[in-house]
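Ticket #4471: structure export looks truncated?
Reporter: QA, pipeline team
Priority: medium

Steps to reproduce: submit the single chain below to the structure queue and open the exported record.
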Amino acid sequence: MANTRIQTGYAAAAPADKQAGLVAGEQEWFELQPVEKKLIRYSFGLGVVLLAIFVFAFGVAG
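Actual output as written to the record:
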């Protein structure tokens, strides 16, 4: 049978540093950009508002 191995982009036996392609001293996390923070706030706010609307509309609270 031909080579049917599926590649996922991750090396199973590689250490975490090499797996992520990190170089010594390189930051693992990057600061979010202002537009990303704004999108997160709007998405979270919309979710909370819709949750409140659905709770009152379908009488779940009472």
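Status: closed, not a bug. The export was complete when the record was re-opened. Leaving a note from the reviewer for reference: The radius of gyration is 22 Å.
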